[in-house]
Write a structure and sequence with these properties.
The strands form two sheets. A seven-stranded mixed β-sheet has the order 5-4-1-2-3-7-6, sandwiched between helices. It has a six-stranded mixed β-sheet with strand order 12-11-8-9-10-13, with helices on both faces. The chain contains twelve helices and 13 strands. The two termini are 37 Å apart. The chain is an alpha/beta fold. Bound molecules: 5'-O-[(R)-(carboxyoxy)(hydroxy)phosphoryl]adenosine and zinc ion.
Length: 395
Amino acid sequence: MRILAIETSCDETAVAIVEGEQAGKETKFEVLGNALLSQIAVHQEYGGVYPMLAKREHAKNLVPLLSAALEEAELIHESEQVISEEKREAITVLLEREGGLAASLLEFLKECEPPKIDAIAVTAGPGLEPALWVGVNFAKALALLWDKPLIAVNHMEGHLLSALLQERGASTYILSDISRPLLGLLISGGHTEIIEMKDWLSYTLIGSTRDDAVGEAFDKVARMLGLPYPGGPEISKLAERARERGGNNPYTLPRPMINDDSCDFSFSGLKTAVLYQVRDNELTDTDKENMAHAFEDAVADVLYAKTLRALEETGAKSLAIGGGVSANTYIKRTFAERLKNDRSDISLFMPPASLTGDNAIMIALACYYRALAQDYADTETLRANGNLALAKDSK
Ligand code: KG4
Ligand code: ZN
């Protein structure tokens, strides 16, 4: 099954073409084309993602990225296309709020045969709603123009499933059969949750943050330390320097909710604790490194303790960690080392480094399983949903 996937939920615009195929107990995913543009530089001066700006950038970049991904997949065949007046009008109405997107899409498609793909996938949520809408409307337009089925994907499902991929060469990934139940620890800029997957595509919420997401806490603490957006990688760099230097860390931070009897998290108190210690103080570079170190340690301890609790409560056999924060080396190391000691029976999965951040390959991956389940979206009624939940609360 050949899938064209679109991701615009936050500050990455991405288009990928992925071929999925069952091979015995394994599923093979071949990336035929992958085009991604990060807007980090655009948002950096605001210290965070500015939704209306993100929307405008997505609208500007989608056609060039579509063209690049199709080109890489060798799916562009030029020939003059007749687009009916009816379709032309439908596209114009569909994309009327997306700047010049309708015009640039029609211009591009005028000379491009419908590509040989089986489905179009798009992130329908969660994320920034204005940003999500651009992708959803663009995907609807393509589905309409090319008469292809449309599949709505939950961004967090993409993060979860991409953790299960193993790299086989430059553009091939394998997803093996895994022991279930699987527990997913999803840590990103907007989410922090523990999810149980008893069966494919069936999710239960085991725990979630009561306030800030962990990536958000990284970003906010980075800002307090005068570091650029996105803060996660910056904090991580500084914390590693402090660890290498060794010695006692003068800063200590709380581990919120670590001993309560739930699998929920809270990071806003931790963030405030940092604020109290850094405000009104002139911090040296060494101070900043020590604070980053203290913060990262606190986050890793809480994430690990809650996940361990959830593993026990659910009887899960495998653990997958996904989302932007799963790029964090210290968190990865903490889980790998401590699990080996505490729960060596658990198989641990983490995404290939190239797939930790937002991308369209993970959207194609989730689409593959949705398509097998014939879970198609309605091009008329599909809506972007900033708060789209992956799992229903078990409580
Ligand atoms: O999944 P993602 O790319 O976007 C969302 O879906 O939110 O996650 C972005 C988040 C940001 O908060 C960023 O600071 C964080 O992931 N992040 C990291 C690291 N790399 C990215 N946090 C900690 N350590 C990292 N190395
Ligand atoms: Zn994400």
